[in-house]
Amino acid sequence: MSDRVEQLKVLLDEAQTVVILTGAGISTESGVPDFRSPGGLWEKFRIVEYDEYLSSEEARIEDWHRRFFMADQIGQVEPNIGHTEIAKWINNGKCTQLITQNVDSLHLRGGAPQDKIIEIHGNATTESCISCSEHHSIELCRTLFEATGESPKCQSCDGLVKADIVMFGEKMPVKKTAEAFKIAETADLFLAIGTSLVVNPAAGLPLHAKHNNAKFAIINRDATELDNFADCVVNGEIEEVMSAI
Ligand code: APR
Fold first, then answer.
1. Residue 238 Cβ < 6 Å to ligand 1
2. Is the shortest distance between the CB of 22 and ligand 1 below 6 Å?
3. Which of 74, 139, 141, 158 has its CA 20 to 30 A from that of 148?
4. Can you give the pTM of this predicted structure?
5. For the segment 83-140, what is each residue's pLDDT rounded down to a tens digit?
6. CATH number of the domain encompassing residue 137
């Protein structure tokens, strides 16, 4: 691993504009499981797609069980070295922008400024009505769920409430996605950390950056879909690798 870390250090030194994409792997050392590793969330829960969420109360109830499970975990954990190192790189100007697929707010809590974080899949710590956009806290959603045994309904208009995240099968937020691709174009080093790079459109960002002349590096425990396209792949635990950089 040490040769690869040295190679990554050189790429970081040479780069003026580093854009980072993170995935669930950055939060596992805080205690939040990722999705696709053994023991990951998609082993415990089924993916409920957006259309199913709209049409089936049973699917909504299933999805809320996962939401509350994740909220409990997120509520108990702290940012780790990965989050705080990235925040340092942003605050000292080395990293110009962070794009994250994570919905756990740990980058923000780890010191990354809000205006430098694009949460491309939204944020699970807030919930809104699909019909009138009224905000509902997760605590209120849980109280309603436990009192009725039904999925939480909007307290203003009785519409369906949903976490402010992008579900599978749901349209990506157009402005945010376009912004992420524009930012990828500005990178001279695009660094993907803790993501399997299988979910689009986020997985398209590194190659978009590369087509716009960026170098592309990966820090990840396991192989990713895009290792063959990367200029440097460091396989290891994020906290260990980031501490060594
Ligand atoms: N150090 C290094 N790598 C790690 C660590 C760690 N401590 N923990 C996990 N990883 C790596 C795993 O090897 C895996 O390749 O992080 C990657 C996480 O991959 P996924 O579980 O697929 O998560 P992610 O890529 O973020 O998923 C993308 O899929 O289900 C959706 O919406 C969800 O945003 C998520 C999207």
1. yes
2. no
3. 74
4. 0.95
5. 999 999 999 999 999 999 999 999 999 999 999 999 999 998 889 999 999 999 999 9
6. 3.30.1600.10
